[in-house]
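Re-run requested by the PI after the first attempt was lost when the workstation crashed. Everything re-entered from the original request form. Ligand of interest: coenzyme A.
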Amino acid sequence: MMQFLARLFSRQEPVLSEAQPKNAPAIAALHAASFRRGWSEDEIRSMIGAKAVLTHRAMVGSKLVGFIISRMAADESEILSVAVTRSAQGRGLAGRMLHLHLRRLAGLGVRTVFLEVGENNTPAIRLYNSAGFEQVSRREGYYQGAPGQQNAALVMRCDFE
Ligand SMILES: CC(C)(COP(=O)(O)OP(=O)(O)OC[C@H]1O[C@@H](n2cnc3c(N)ncnc32)[C@H](O)[C@@H]1OP(=O)(O)O)[C@@H](O)C(=O)NCCC(=O)NCCS
């Protein structure tokens, strides 16, 4: 019975919507599982509550399976983080979240979106290329990779028509 429910649950299509401060603990947990430097629940709660910050979540029932967060300044925005829980990866969820997020940013008057991504992060680079981002510069030694190894960050940009 439990296996049946788990299978049913895993097939459900995630529902996307704007995140609420109450999602901060789940976003902090997914962020910590996805990146070397975590954000605290309090940092995330105050970001979600900030007027210049836009956060979307992906939920399967009451379980958070993905999020994307960006900060706006005038007509520009920077994507600060995006992550999908491992069991939900590779099924187009990040693409759906990014598409929704970019449409909402455009509706809020944003014209240009920037982000930084590790040069070795193939899934993320493919995600951003598919959404129309292009590399505009490169920061050497920006990310700490394996011990003793540093990776460059690619700065990417997307202009809305
Ligand atoms: C990056 C991330 C959000 C992608 O989430 P996802 O839901 O699996 O992405 P999607 O299924 O929408 O696929 C996005 C693109 O990545 C590609 N991709 C997905 N998994 C991949 C993998 N393991 N290897 C190579 N490419 C992959 C897809 O084919 C797709 O490319 P396409 O549009 O050219 O077909 C997810 O891997 C993640 O959470 N990573 C850890 C956190 C992270 O690195 N975030 C980005 C920080 S800049």
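Saved to the shared folder this time. The chain has a mean pLDDT of 93.
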